[in-house]
Write a structure and sequence with these properties.
mainly alpha; globular
Length: 277
C-alpha cells in the first residue's frame, strides 16, 4: 500500500526553484542592496554618539521636532478629512473622466515638490487665485505661516492616502454593503457602519504613509512656507540649514528622521506581510 502524498507543501519551499541563483541576477541584486544600505550605515557610523543626548535636547532641535510632529499630524488629519471621501468617490462612483481625475490625484507623487510649492503660492498666496480673495475677505494668509506648512505637507502626502484607501475599497466585499442596503440602511449609514470598518486597515496604512511623507516634506514647505525657526522650520529644513553651519547637528536630526522611518516601516510590516500571503 502506497502512502498518500502530502496535500500541500511549505509555502516558502514552494516558492524556491532548484539550483543556485544565477550570478547575473545575484551580483546586481547585492549591489543594489549595498547602494541602499551603505548611506544609512554611513550615517550611523559618523553620528556623534558621545554628544547625541546633549544635542537632542537643544532648543532648536526640540522646536523643529515639535513643529514637525504637529504639522505632520495636522496634515494627516486634513488628508483623512478630504482624502477618504475622494478615494470613495474614485472607487465607487462612475462618471466621465474618472481616469483623468485619478491621474490628477497622483500628480503630486511625481511632481517635484518645489514645483508644488510654487503652485501653492500661485493659488493661495496673497496675490493668488484664491489666496487674494481669502486675504481681502477674511484676512487669511497661508504663505510663510505654520498653516502654510500644513497645507504644503498635505498637498504632497494626500495621494499616498487616496491610493491606499481606494485600493482597499476596490478589494472590499460589496455583498455586505448590498445586504445593508436591502435592509433599508442609508448610504451614509452604510459608509459609516459597514464600509469604514471593512477598509479600516487600508485607511490606517494610508494614514501612516501620509504622516511619514508629511514629516519628511522639504521642497514644497520651504517654497511655500519658508524657513523660519519656531514657525515654519520643520526637521528636514533644520537638517538643510544645519548642514551648512553644524554638520554634526545635521547628522543628529537625520538620525531622528531615520528612526521615525524605521518605526513607520515596523508599523506597516504586518499589513505588508498579510497582503503577500
Amino acid at each position: 500500500m502506497t502512502r498518500p502524498r502530502k496535500a500541500s507543501r511549505n509555502a516558502g519551499e514552494a516558492d524556491r526553484l532548484p539550483g543556485r541563483p544565477p550570478w547575473a541576477l545575484l551580483v546586481p541584486g547585492l549591489l543594489g542592496l549595498a547602494f541602499l544600505v551603505l548611506p544609512l550605515f554611513g550615517l550611523l557610523v559618523r553620528a556623534p554618539w558621545s554628544t547625541l543626548g546633549t544635542r537632542l535636547v537643544q532648543t532648536q532641535v526640540l522646536e523643529a521636532l515639535r513643529l514637525s510632529l504637529l504639522t505632520a499630524t495636522l496634515a494627516t488629519c486634513l488628508c483623512l478629512l478630504l482624502g477618504v471621501p475622494l478615494a470613495w468617490t474614485l472607487a465607487r462612483v462612475r462618471f466621465p473622466g474618472v481616469r483623468f481625475v485619478r491621474a490628477l490625484v497622483t500628480v503630486p507623487l511625481v511632481l517635484p515638490p518645489v514645483v508644488g510649492g510654487v503652485a501653492l503660492l500661485l493659488v493661495l498666496g496673497r496675490r493668488g487665485l484664491v489666496g487674494g480673495w481669502l486675504d481681502r475677505s477674511f484676512g487669511l494668509t497661508f504663505p510663510f505661516t505654520t498653516a502654510g506648512v500644513v497645507l504644503a505637507e498635505a498637498f504632497v502626502a494626500m495621494p499616498f492616502l487616496v491610493i491606499s484607501v481606494e485600493g482597499a475599497l476596490r478589494a472590499a466585499d460589496l455583498r455586505y454593503e448590498e445586504a445593508a442596503a436591502t435592509l433599508g440602511a442609508g448610504r451614509w449609514t452604510i459608509f459609516r457602519r459597514i464600509t469604514l470598518p471593512l477598509v479600516a486597515p487600508g485607511v490606517a496604512a494610508g494614514a501612516i504613509l501620509c504622516w511619514a511623507r508629511a514629516l519628511g516634506e522639504f521642497g514644497a514647505t520651504i517654497t511655500f512656507a519658508g524657513n523660519f525657526p519656531g514657525r515654519t522650520q520643520t526637521m528636514p529644513l533644520a537638517v538643510y540649514l544645519a548642514l551648512e553651519t553644524d554638520p554634526q547637528a545635521a547628522i543628529v536630526l537625520s538620525l531622528v528622521l531615520l528612526a521615525v522611518s524605521v518605526i513607520v516601516l515596523a508599523a506597516l510590516r504586518d499589513r505588508w506581510l498579510d497582503g503577500t500571503r
